[in-house]
Automatic annotation (TrEMBL), chains A, B:
<dbReference type="GO" id="GO:0004821">
    <property type="term" value="F:histidine-tRNA ligase activity"/>
</dbReference>
<dbReference type="InterPro" id="IPR004154">
    <property type="entry name" value="Anticodon-bd"/>
</dbReference>
<comment type="subunit">
    <text>Homodimer.</text>
</comment>
<dbReference type="GO" id="GO:0006427">
    <property type="term" value="P:histidyl-tRNA aminoacylation"/>
</dbReference>
<feature type="binding site">
    <location>
        <begin position="102"/>
        <end position="104"/>
    </location>
    <ligand>
        <name>L-histidine</name>
    </ligand>
</feature>
<dbReference type="InterPro" id="IPR015807">
    <property type="entry name" value="His-tRNA-ligase"/>
</dbReference>
<feature type="domain" description="Aminoacyl-transfer RNA synthetases class-II family profile">
    <location>
        <begin position="1"/>
        <end position="400"/>
    </location>
</feature>
<feature type="binding site">
    <location>
        <position position="146"/>
    </location>
    <ligand>
        <name>L-histidine</name>
    </ligand>
</feature>
<dbReference type="InterPro" id="IPR006195">
    <property type="entry name" value="aa-tRNA-synth_II"/>
</dbReference>
<dbReference type="InterPro" id="IPR004516">
    <property type="entry name" value="HisRS/HisZ"/>
</dbReference>
<dbReference type="InterPro" id="IPR041715">
    <property type="entry name" value="HisRS-like_core"/>
</dbReference>
<keyword id="KW-0648">Protein biosynthesis</keyword>
<feature type="binding site">
    <location>
        <position position="150"/>
    </location>
    <ligand>
        <name>L-histidine</name>
    </ligand>
</feature>
<dbReference type="InterPro" id="IPR033656">
    <property type="entry name" value="HisRS_anticodon"/>
</dbReference>
<keyword id="KW-0547">Nucleotide-binding</keyword>
<keyword id="KW-0436">Ligase</keyword>
<keyword id="KW-0067">ATP-binding</keyword>
Amino acid sequence: MAKKPGIPKGTRDFSPTEVARRQYIMQTIRHGFEKFGFHPIETPSFENLDTLLGKYGEEGDRLIFKILNSGDYLSKVDETILESKNSLKLTNQISEKALRYDLTVPFARYVVMHQNEIDFPFKRYQMQPVWRADRPQKGRYREFYQCDADVIGSKSLWQEVEFVTLYDRVFTALGVHGVTIKLNNRKILSGIAEVIGASDKLIDFTVALDKLDKIGEDGVKAEMIEKGIEAEAIDKVKLLFNFTGTFEEKLEKLRQLLATSEEGTKGVEELAFVGKEVEKIGLATAKLNLDVTLARGLNYYTGAIFEIGAPETVKLGSIGGGGRYDDLTGIFGLKDMSGVGISFGLDRIYLVMEELNLFPEAVNAASKVMFLNMGEEEMSYSMQAVMKLRDAGVKTELYPDKAKVGKQFQFADKKGIPFAVLVGSEEMSNNKFTLKELASGEQTVVSLEELIERLK
Amino acid sequence: MAKKPGIPKGTRDFSPTEVARRQYIMQTIRHGFEKFGFHPIETPSFENLDTLLGKYGEEGDRLIFKILNSGDYLSKVDETILESKNSLKLTNQISEKALRYDLTVPFARYVVMHQNEIDFPFKRYQMQPVWRADRPQKGRYREFYQCDADVIGSKSLWQEVEFVTLYDRVFTALGVHGVTIKLNNRKILSGIAEVIGASDKLIDFTVALDKLDKIGEDGVKAEMIEKGIEAEAIDKVKLLFNFTGTFEEKLEKLRQLLATSEEGTKGVEELAFVGKEVEKIGLATAKLNLDVTLARGLNYYTGAIFEIGAPETVKLGSIGGGGRYDDLTGIFGLKDMSGVGISFGLDRIYLVMEELNLFPEAVNAASKVMFLNMGEEEMSYSMQAVMKLRDAGVKTELYPDKAKVGKQFQFADKKGIPFAVLVGSEEMSNNKFTLKELASGEQTVVSLEELIERLK
């Protein structure tokens, strides 16, 4: 019983400072979502197992945390399954629920269940934890928050324009300036696949192309050939090896390259619309970049693909992403609902802000002032002031036990409380308070009104 | 696959309005906690199974949701257990983690694990969901939030004073006026048990006494005798059958009644201190009531016991509670840490506020204004205004697709959006916007600056 307790691997305790900082990030994202007209929903932490299974591929199914049925869950289990010791088969018999693996499938389930209450297009955001039985490693946890915004029921490209500006405004508000909003389109990738005549090699192609900066044109070509892409095909897309310039210049190159592909050309036009409207609106601190190597979510995205690169000084990779998917709710029987959504990577954003020292001074859990405990009578006298300060919105605590003054000051100091109030017989008879600023050591005797004024 | 999806029994989806209202309650409680010097922590949703088991009694152990181990969890299981189909024995072999059942045990585990980083007394608050495999019924769910504040490492009675005033201030801020803060003390209950000479009958005694209003003195006495309490013992505490008057008058009765009990007398003095200091401070809208029938948490509380009664016009019972426990962290090997804490019942408070119509008008998820979509050119013109409004903090959305104006107005109306903006060729050439208030139908043509001014 008395052995030192621990927590499951891949999970975390959050200290007061960490909670305050995480809440600051989440509040800023939340305000961004709401200003852009998104509405919050919340779904249960666990879903019926059959809602989740089969939605994330075989590997995903394995990583879903299943919840054991309550009570005598073995009583109805087929004995042959027990005898065979087949874990996979037994799971379905002793588990009916599982912790959600992401927020997208629960959202699709929500939309289908509540379709008669919802006015489409439906703009929802959701900020809740998800769980994955992944092997834990640096920056990868078994419990983590996702912060998602999606629109469902509209094919309008204005949604893509909105998401680009939303990313810009939220990162600007967080002080994370200079993020790169990478934009691509699934249809452009399909066009490239068409042109190189090898749609099954698309991932190999984009992975190799992404290494251009590191291994140069010859290196990339060698890798492509090694992966089985024909030299002739590579030659057809040679424009991509010199894929520089402005958004508009890149678009022009793609127009040429994909002229023979109907789908590719459609992708170019979609990107052109988004690029043009975003430029007219103007981004506050982010940069928009057309990146044809961006191939995330290739299996489900059907239009725009987004990814957010951290500011260049930080080596952290992606801190957000998303895209358009044409049939999110089809898995639950509601057809033809186009959706588009983005996600903010809370843990990564936290690391970026920590590294760049971007958390405002005021974002911490410390109280503003502590009243010292000089005895019962003094405390009793102090309580009126304590409550008036709180009613005025000042975070105020009191040292609960009578202790040496030095110890009490040390306590306030360790906790980062900037002010202390002392009350002795003199203060009580004059109806005053001694306010001490701990950093400077400066002390002033003040009235209650002055005290509130100083600390508010 | 296409069958209509559902959610596990006892769980809930929350709509945008419900999330907005729940967040309003939680924000208000959070501000209260912080103004009183409490700091937030968060712990993982699941704990190691052995952290939780044995802490909530046999019934509690049954109601804990266990998580199935990942991978081939049966491979190491003893075959005789499988053959015996003993669910209870198998659980420990195939499950190492479980969803938290409350926030108190994880808090104790946190304190012990992080004792070297914590400066005591430690005032923490925590607002996170907990899970119980209880039979679902009206107002009882399998997933629900707890909102707890505790102080650990201080025996000072000022903590009790603080919690009474904290309850008062939070319910006042929520607009829930007239709650009753019921106060009792475990030592008084022990004193009564001593006086009636039947400590094993204490629960029966308080349950019967609690029915005084309903079944009268004779009824209560009959029930007590039926439960095996001696008539002579009942006579010794007859003062409790006329237990009315002010806080001070009730205390006086208890002083007499418990004069022979050292522990009971100590309980009276503790209550007297809290009552006196609370009265000096003054409660804004709550009432303090000494209630000797309050016997919640009899197994773990050692001092003060709190319970919050909803305003009398609402028949809802307890909407919060707490108490002092002398050895919270002992179960994890850290001795002599006295703690005291309270909890707000989020779901019940929600019901009270709904019934009394206390949610402010502004607490909903609706946007303030929607820009109609009159075509691509008009949208493109509108976007500057859309973004300026958002940058000014106004929740602004746009109708993403070109559709009949009537349909677009209907959409805004259904969603409770109070204003709409229309842009046509005239507005564009004059650099203006037509602002329509949907309720009155009133339309005005305004400049961008006026638009922001009107909607801010």
